[in-house]
Amino acid sequence: MAIIVFNNALSVGFYIGDLYFVALGSIFSVLFFYSLKESKKINMHMVFLIIACLTSILINDVPPLFKPYVRFLLFVMILYLVGPLIISTSLMSFRFKLFSLLNKINLVIVVLSLLGLVTGVYRGVAVNWMGHTRIDFTGLYNHSMLLGPMAGISVLTSFFYYFRKRNNKKQRLLLVVCVFFSFITVVAAGSRGALIATVLGSLFFLYKIYQGRLSKYLSTVLVIVAALTISFPLWEDKADFLNSKMDRDAVDDPFDSRTTKWNQRIVEFQSSPIFGIGFASIDINGLDDYNAITGTIEPGSSWLTILSMTGLFGLLPILFLFLRNLLFMIKYDRNRNYTSFVGGLLILVTVHMIIEGYVFASGAFLFFYLWLLLGIIEGYLSIEKINKINNYELEKFK
After folding, report:
1. Taking a C-beta distance cutoff of 8 angstroms, is the pair 281, 68 a contact?
2. What is the separation, in whole angstroms, between the first and last Cα of the chain?
3. Which residues lie across from 127 on neighbouring strands?
């Protein structure tokens, strides 16, 4: 599964076509039948979301080019495999192992991406959208807008292992370097949203890890800020991509049409505020672009996507899920290193979802990672509440 997911996201990956769905379906089938034998917990809020998504398709005349039923089935399959739809022993074991593996691989990819930029060996691929081409820093990922948040995730992963390796000074020093490299990669990727999300996620991580020790928290934040400030001349030029994006705000940039996308999502929501205009679709008569051949769209915001596609009917279960998980991460006081990590990641994706629309983008890497993270948190919450899964499964991740 890790190979399949990363292959679709890397600039050095290869096209596998329908084999993606065959492989995904095979893994789904194995875990589905294996989990049938186990006691399980069904998340009714996710059932409510699935009903909302299906209803939005049934009551709307969704253009066939968007393939709403295919994308819906893939969405449900992912929710079952890695999302918070079903909690069982085998599924949670699978998710913890996959989550750990994805984070470790991503850390390596992010560090190699920055080294490729610094050495001039490999900067990435040209970004193409609707006939326009632009050279960005994408690293080993296939888009700078993917590299940015993944580098932010790498920052938190490095923090997590740094506090885990308390008695290994050499590994901790290496992880400090990884934190620095990962942060510079966020800056170099040029995504302001990813940068803000990374900072807020990191602040939550440190707040949680030092919960009850305000002075230690503040001193650590000040040390990090001072280190970045002092080292700024070393990586100042890596902020060129970020500065160039700010400069493009003043001109008509075909790549920077997020305001248009946001406005269009609001218009779509206003046209059907209860059930939305249809899962995995946009208004083809609106102002937003889409690929008329593949049905590919870039909604521009996950939160506005939920409103426009599924209306308030779809927003409520997702909003409840996020709020409940966030409150759990804040209040829970055991396994603090782990909860600091996943809590920081939850903050990161929650903020980043404001400026990128992948919440229903079945097949996209960030879509997969988002629902896997929610599945991990929901499973961990269920372990603590009903104790139906052996805590040994948590040890496999830690």
Report:
1. yes
2. 20
3. 134
In order, the DSSP letters of 176-198 are HHHHHHHHHHHHHHT-HHHHHHH
**Which residues contact residue 51 at a Cβ distance below 8 angstroms, ignoring those fewer than 6 apart?**
none
61's enclosing H/E stretch is none
Find where tokens 């939920």 sit.
Answer: 306
pLDDT per residue rounded down to tens, the chain (398 residues):
999 999 989 988 787 777 888 888 899 999 988 888 888 889 999 999 999 999 999 999 999 999 999 999 999 999 999 999 998 888 999 999 999 999 999 999 999 999 999 998 998 887 765 556 667 889 999 988 999 999 999 999 999 999 988 788 899 999 999 999 999 999 999 889 999 999 999 999 999 999 888 999 999 999 999 999 998 888 888 877 777 665 555 444 444 568 889 999 999 999 999 999 999 999 998 888 888 888 889 899 999 999 999 999 999 999 999 999 999 888 887 788 889 999 999 999 999 999 999 999 988 999 999 999 999 998 888 776 555 444 444 444 44
